[in-house]
């Protein structure tokens, strides 16, 4: 299993998902309850009452406090217990963890680690998600697999040809060699695949209107552990313009061991007023994501049944994924 | 996990559940098959054939004998094997355990432990269940939780305010302090909560017809490990009569580890001819019990996912539950 | 759990099940993908891509090669990798195991063990399955039990009286003693039960037309570990002819630990043109097999819940099953 890297920011939710209903998510094995105060501020607390470990997400939100649904222990936004049943004295140790949150680019980021150290690490950015002139479609799928399998999947796009053939993959993706670059200090792995003359898959032909062959550039930036950006650039072969820019964003958030939240978004700066293109991309990319979900669920079940010490065989296309694994191991070991 | 206390009587079934169909239940991890002889006597045998461990509950009841559904090993009401296939000689060791049973108060009690010692311990009584002048509604729900969680639940009624608000709970239950008394010799824990002036919850307003505020007394007697009685007394504030008496009975029978049978009954000595009240209490209390079932299933799943050595924080309301846990630990250690 | 015996032939499929669709089965814990080449030759490869362990059974069959559905690693019928994405050099270690297969008597047999030693052991035969003058009905049911439980079941037919009463069992089966013979060198256990005057069960009365009592001979030959033959001979009491011959074949193939493939077939040399008899036997025997499946699933769950070191009590009828267990233990230990 890929080790969990603490002392890091992770996407726990889209901003629009968090509201006045209590919501449960588990990040790096920690159960968390999310909600917004009456003033609209997002709050994240440990999702277990100090009394008998009842999930606070099964509680009532009263004003800005959470009232445990079992015996009424009441917590404020800092996780401090402010009321208990049957007595006025509240034990000093009655508090649950409150998590640092940052809301930006349409994401709610949570700091898993020592809260005092949250300020030392910048939240990674995906500005195109909310920038003017860009339109985004998005979703989230939980997958029952080690989060490292999703990192592997995204770092090696040669699988587009086989798993997503007829959707986003064409023969050229698997055929074209990649270049890989590791910036250990910044914690970024970059993988590029530039196809000078490639078939145009339906994903792009139907969104851009191009009907011939294309120049297709895929430039990945993986900001370990959570944020993955694929800068996709398309233009008809033989002409430089128009250049169609698509930014494909993934936030890869480990849930429990063997579970991962797969936040996905597709942003474009063309045909931004065209609702049909928007609807097409939302549906089509969801289908593509579900192909990955199905394959990764299956792969995890296969790996779970393998005897210990099974072997992998890596080739050139795996350079990015292997670099990502080393970086994650380093972050986890710190 | 709360340890199992052997050498004790447990409710395995309501008397009306046991008949001429073989019936399987598991108590303290022991699989048991139950039936009645042609003369109406309840019988309990170990539910595994000595031959190949096939469940005898999947067998045929022929007269008063059980004929194994796989190869025909035949047992009498003492568990002695009286026939085997293909030979007339029956091995001397061919017998399954027969369990002492006592049928009383509408319950079938089973002795889990050395049968020779069953007579040393009296069967706890709940006479109101069948006494003249009382009417009872009842049921049984299996819960996928440690039986200690159900004991906790019942010993601390402050949860009525939160989990059963609008049914049996009102603010006064959680607000009013309790008194606790432990009779270690008799093996009884008593918890009392006397509310002088409280809101009347629907459970009582609709069964008694009271429409104002009430004096409400809750007096718990827990006869560890299995029998729990809640003596509930209600009267309108400011008048001593009429006094409405409700006896709420639970039998808490550990099944497999992590499973418990929750036998529940509500007995009253008022409106005993009123079928509408009977029907109301049967439905309404089932709803209340299912609120507990849902919460305890959920709590157990949450605890199962907790890292080992998780902490609880106890306050005054937990005095009864903690005393019960100590008593159960003592019984189990004997 | 009954240990697995490697270096043996096992039935992995009926010949008619293997075609131009990739098909997954697991034998002795080894995941295997099966298909036929364009020339009709059956192929069996390890069902895990060398690259990232993706199941090859989720791949595409292109000509005679298997193209992994995740990243396109391509294997020929020998398991040799002949193409990988993004590069022309193929690592020398890129190969998956190819299994020796023999197709005979309507079965596809697979050799689990060192392929170089497959020729040293003859494939057991069940010639009646495809011989002229015989008609066969057949099927396969997976059972969630230790394969040893199915061997036990088939070696001791006294269970016909109880589990299959009204179908194939009558009182005489359980009453009649057996004779057992073990040929350790040939690896065969033989169990015979000859009933001189027995009730005729529906299985035989409806297929043969006999309406009185019968002479009934059951002669089992178990060729450990996989092939079981029951030579059944029926004739009306008091006359030698006509003699109705039925060959009942089982192939017992361990899948994963705790799972077994139950291949079953009923062959007859009478009423071979009678489609109604064929249809009756197909349906009726499926019902009988499902009675075993249900019982063995149940028995395994019961055994899984037993504390370690549970006891069995064996009697004369178990002589064949115990001999089979000893033989399997010997084969596994080699």
TrEMBL record, chains A, B, C:
Keyword Ribosomal protein: no
GO biological-process terms attached to the record: methylation
Alphabetical UniProt keywords: 2Fe-2S, Iron, Iron-sulfur, Metal-binding, Methyltransferase, Monooxygenase, Oxidoreductase, Transferase
Top-level taxonomic group: Bacteria
GO molecular function, one term: monooxygenase activity
InterPro entries (alphabetical): Cholesterol_7-desaturase (IPR050584), Rieske_2Fe-2S (IPR017941), Rieske_2Fe-2S_sf (IPR036922), VanA_C_cat (IPR044043)
SUPFAM superfamilies: Bet v1-like, ISP domain
Domain named Rieske: residues: 9-110
Keyword Transferase on entry: yes
PANTHER family: 3-KETOSTEROID-9-ALPHA-MONOOXYGENASE, OXYGENASE COMPONENT (PTHR21266:SF60), IRON-SULFUR DOMAIN CONTAINING PROTEIN (PTHR21266)
Name listed for the protein in its UniProt record: Vanillate O-demethylase monooxygenase subunit
